[in-house]
Design brief:
Blueprint lengths: L6 E4 L6 E2 L1 H14 L7 H7 L4 H9 L6 H21 L1 E2 L3 H10 L3 E5 L4 H10 L8 E3 L12 H10 L6 E5 L2 H10 L2 E5 L6 H6 L4 E3 L10
Parallel strand pairs: 1-4, 1-6, 4-5, 6-7, 7-8
Antiparallel strand pairs: 2-3
Length: 217
């Protein structure tokens, strides 16, 4: 069987896994402990998809180089790791879709705003790490999403054909990254906080459920 779409690049949070509550709980605790105004659920969801190194300085009203932010980052990651097991779940149909794509000969990668260590841990804990050839976390790129660095790094390393690659994500930043990298894009409607905003990015594909990944040609 001839494969037209060779490569699938996935975001993690709210694309592969329903992790929104984990992020909200961790962010709000860290900001409360730091005696900073606590971001609302809506604020956190709207910026989900960006690394904390981008969102925290804005929410905290601090310069990005402020040393206090380093402490907040460390506390966020520590608390997140404590609660992720009880609050992070695969979306229904994700594992079957990944297995189907892999069995059909597609190459799968993850490009996330998480650091690569926690990202690999999450994939393994959820039982899907074996489907992916490689991953790129926020600690491995010079420029964060929506810059195309993560995708372009994989394109160069594995000699991927950008015309036969698609970036799958729930957030506008994922689609913007895909557009900037010159690959096709797929909106993961099942995890999107703002579906209309996702549609406005004009993705190549707009999906309602993970099973539709298998229909991408």
């Amino acid at each position: 069987m001839e494969i037209t779409m060779e490569t699938f690049l996935f975001d993690f949070d709210n694309t592969l896994a329903d992790s929104g509550e984990t992020s909200i709980m961790a962010v709000q605790k860290v900001f409360a402990d730091a005696h900073k105004p606590v971001p609302s659920r809506e604020m956190i969801f709207s910026d989900m998809g960006l690394p904390i190194e981008t969102s925290f300085p804005v929410w905290a009203g601090l310069d990005s180089q402020d040393i206090f932010l380093q402490q907040m980052y460390a506390e966020f990651r520590a608390y997140y790791s404590e609660i992720e097991g009880a609050n992070t779940r695969l979306f229904p149909g994700i594992q079957a879709a990944l297995e189907g794509l892999k069995n059909n000969g597609h190459k799968l990668y993850v490009v996330s705003s998480k650091s690569s260590g926690p990202l690999a841990r999450n994939l393994d804990n959820l039982g899907i790490g074996q489907y992916f050839t490689d991953l790129v976390g926020s600690d491995l790129v010079e420029n964060f999403k929506p810059a195309p660095d993560g995708i372009l790094q994989l394109v160069e390393k594995y000699r991927l054909n950008k015309e036969q690659a698609v970036m799958v994500g729930d957030a506008i930043f994922d689609l913007q990254m895909g557009h900037a990298a010159g690959v096709k894009t797929a909106g993961a409607g099942w995890g999107a906080f703002d579906l209309e905003a996702l549609k406005a990015q004009k993705p190549t594909y707009l999906l309602d459920e993970p099973a539709q990944l298998l229909e991408i040609k």
